[in-house]
Predict the structure.
Amino acid sequence: MPKLWNETIEAHRRDVRDAIVDTTAALVAKHGLRAVTMSQIAEETGIGRATLYKYFPDVEAILVAWHELHVSAHLQQFIEFGHQVGGPGQRLEAVLEAFAFMSHEHHGTELATLLHRGEHVARAQQHLGNLIRDLLTEGAKAGDFRNDVAPAELAAYCLHALSAASSLPSKAAVRRLVAVTLSGLRPPP
């Protein structure tokens, strides 16, 4: 087959897949997780059910694909914060604050519970933990962060501590949690 033909087919498949994912997310947001069916998705997307099943076996698989896209986008944002201009302390603060606010905004729903058990989430958390560890290592060398605890342990501490942002009542409370977490990273007197 000519290369142009293959590229056109792949582009079409990607467009159909994206339309399915976007339509499903909109339907779930409008009607709730339990109310959305594959028939509704096919109808709203403008494709046949048989075509829909060629792409995804069920609604949950579509939502996992949607969530993978969002997790990747969040991870990319964290990486950008970790590589922006400034010292390791400023960059780490930006990463931790972004993570805390993400945790604060996306919590407690049936959909979040369903989607956060996927392997893609574990991989993203590992990448984020490595990013935080590297910033802590760099900051410890500069004297900004403590060096009496392994950076990997401190990174785990940060992620666990800031996961508590999901239960905080306000953005001000999230900022205070980030400040308390950062204070625990400073070198002992």
Summary: The radius of gyration is 21 Å. The mean pLDDT is 89.
